[in-house]
Design goal:
The chain is α+β, with helices and mostly antiparallel strands. The protein folds into 3 domains: about 160 residues, Beta Barrel (Cathepsin D, subunit A, domain 1), CATH 2.40.70; about 110 residues, Tetratricopeptide repeat domain (Serine Threonine Protein Phosphatase 5, Tetratricopeptide repeat, Alpha Horseshoe), CATH 1.25.40.10; about 130 residues, Acid Proteases (Cathepsin D, subunit A, domain 1, Beta Barrel), CATH 2.40.70.10. It has 14 helices and 24 strands. Strands 13, 14, 15, 16, 17, 18, 19, 20, 21 and 22 form a 10-stranded mixed sheet that branches. Strands 3-4-9-5-8-7 form a 6-stranded mixed beta barrel. The longest helix has 21 residues. This is Tetratricopeptide repeat protein. Pfam families: Asp_protease_2.
Length: about 425
């Protein structure tokens, strides 16, 4: 479907370029999965590596367990079982298998990083520090230094059992007010592809001190990322104390409807401490203390890296297959590639590219139907990249994840719904206030 070249289309161009650059910086912290090429070339339908790559995690887990029965010292099977468990926050199993994998293959830095992530997700940062230092890259050593300044009780939460914070703005992405270190209320974008990130001006105004630095990419340019620690982050009636934060000089932030720019963004590393609902339809962020819940309702929720939520979605009649769940895309609802779109019969509007990243063109698409469970979007604007590039939301993270993500579902798709991220039950629930996905 052809799109007119309008001022709003110019906004889409700027949005996709900005988003790609910021996602590239975030993706830099995701460890690449080391699967030997001989395994990847296997053709058996029961080959666990192929099952894993295609996002068939339960089947892959069963197949890896069969391998361990025949060879309990299979380092690769242990590593993969640990990774699958970590994707679902099954921490005890993840720790067991990842530790075994490292004992059997001390050079397995991917498992070292995932074991560190396993401890970080449980707020056991002190256990992660020696692992990150052992990996020894500049970024992991910087994270270890940052975590060393957190003290004994990171992410200490106080306040009521729940709080409801209205969206100050719905577009270009959901924006709420929060206070930092006792400041006046500041505007923050809520972006599930984010950690906790401050604008450099905000960090300067607050007098924050960087305890470590690392390198990243924003706007396709190298940047220095400063790592620090916040004493307090208050959202509504709930306060979170003693938590990691970062800021950098690079990257453009979107202009808000009142002409200002946000003081920062927060996302999954904050949200997974709560039962978090982004209620687009009623324009509010609802945070509740986690509680036991059934693992059978809603959609599966997996967490890749330290802050990339994934679930199962469908493009047209294909799927469900693994997709990423991102609330920070501006002016559209889907990201994928030209190859995937055309293979599914989705027209690609090559006459009106929205921009390019490193010479790779990006085109508008409007699939007639996309869905997450029973939540359906029709004729929603999306972007398709001519080729995969680092930082492309969804498919651009597949290499780092080690499994294929066919698309990224983002902002415009969620507008009719309330989206709940349950990192205790590891379920994604999407409600239209009448029914639930």
């Amino acid at each position: 479907m052809s799109l007119p070249h309008t001022p709003s289309h110019d906004l889409d161009r700027r949005a996709v370029l900005r988003r790609a650059g910021l996602t590239a910086a975030a993706a830099a912290s995701v460890p690449f999965l080391d699967i030997p090429s001989t395994r990847a070339a296997a053709t058996s339908a029961k080959d666990p590596d192929r099952l894993f790559k295609h996002g068939r995690f339960a089947e892959a887990e069963r197949a890896y367990r069969l391998l361990l029965r025949g060879d309990p010292r299979n380092a690769h099977a242990n590593a993969q079982l640990g990774y699958i468990a970590l994707l679902s926050n099954r921490f005890r199993m993840a720790e067991c298998h990842l530790s075994s994998a490292i004992d059997l293959n001390p050079a397995d830095t991917g498992s070292l990083r995932r074991l560190a992530d396993c401890f970080v997700r449980q707020d056991r940062h002190a256990r992660a520090i020696p692992l990150l230092n052992e990996i020894g890259t500049p970024s992991t050593k910087a994270s270890a230094t940052q975590y060393g300044h957190l003290g004994a009780s990171p992410y200490r939460i106080s306040g009521p059992a729940g709080t409801r914070v209205p969206f100050r703005f719905l577009d270009p992405v959901p924006v709420v007010e929060a206070s930092v270190n006792g400041s006046r209320p500041l505007t923050f974008m809520v972006d599930t592809y984010a950690t906790l990130d401050l604008a450099p001006e905000t960090a300067k105004d607050l007098g924050l001190r960087a305890v470590a630095t690392t390198s990243g990419v924003a706007g396709n340019k190298p940047v220095t990322i400063y790592l620090g620690v916040l004493d307090s982050f208050r959202i509504g009636d709930i306060e979170v104390r003693n938590l990691p934060v970062q800021w950098s000089q690079g990257g453009q932030r979107p202009t808000l409807p009142d002409g200002s720019t946000a003081a920062g963004a927060f996302g999954t590393t904050v949200l997974y401490h709560f039962l978090a609902t982004m209620d687009y339809a009623r324009r509010a962020l609802v945070l509740r203390r986690p509680r036991p819940a059934r693992r059978s309702d809603g959609l599966p929720l997996w967490l890749a890296g330290d802050h990339f939520p994934c679930s199962l979605g469908s493009l047209r009649d294909d799927g469900p297959r693994v997709v990423t769940v991102d609330t920070g895309g501006i002016g559209h609802g889907l990201d994928t590639t030209v190859e995937i779109a055309e293979s599914l019969g989705i027209p690609v509007d090559r006459a009106h590219p929205v921009g390019s990243v490193n010479g790779i063109d990006i085109y508008p698409i409007r699939p007639d139907r996309i869905s997450l469970g029973r939540a359906v979007g029709r004729d929603i604007l999306g972007f398709a990249a001519e080729k995969v590039f680092p930082g492309l939301p969804g498919p651009g993270l597949s290499a780092a994840f080690g499994f294929d993500a066919i698309a990224n579902f983002t902002h415009d798709f969620y507008k009719p719904y309330a989206v709940t991220f349950d990192y205790t039950a590891m379920r994604l629930r999407i409600a239209s206030h009448r029914r639930r996905a």
